[in-house]
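Exercise 3.2. Students should predict the tertiary structure of the chain below and write it as structure tokens, then compare their answer with the key that follows.

Predict this chain's 3D structure.
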Amino acid sequence: MSHIGRPTKPDKRTLRQEYLAVRNRLTADDVREAAAALADRALGLPELARARTVAAYVSVGSEPGTLTLLDALRERGVRVLLPALLPDNDLDWGAYTGEGSVARVQHGGKMALFEPSGERLGPDAVTGADVVLLPGLAVDGRGMRLGRGGGSYDRVLARLERAGARPALVVLLYDSEVVAHVPEEAHDRLVHAVVTPSGVRRFRSGA
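Answer key:
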């Protein structure tokens, strides 16, 4: 079939590079202000208001900031789980009990991550979460999320599905990262909501 004359849509790799380039131009003040607004918006979510356990992550670099949100959840008495990257790119989990409970871990040539420094609870611990906060680079109007491409959260979502667990899936992004279209593959899953510094958008088909 000929595609001559048709505009080609960017692939995931190209899109990731574009979104990361925009993030990398943010100043420390931009990131800090967005993190405070993001926490305010997220804490208003009914799903988080009634959650007993939340699986989250510690943001790195110019990612939308999460530490303010994590500390606020802890103050509410919520159990917060953080991921630890395994050699096969799967995720183990540990409890977040404050800033002293995370350690900076360098994974070979990949980025350094902040991971739980205490007891590891096993990859299946995520199946007990009421809400899973997902990192990402973009989400579209259907709720299709573009991740970083490592596949770690694809494994998490598949594990939840196999266990019959149905937590609310929420992605944390900047306002400009809610876009018209994100390419999808067979293993991709829709999220239920996106939180940005300016508000919350829900998706009816999130699953």
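Discussion points: The CA atoms of residues 42 and 195 lie 6 Å apart. The radius of gyration is 17 Å.
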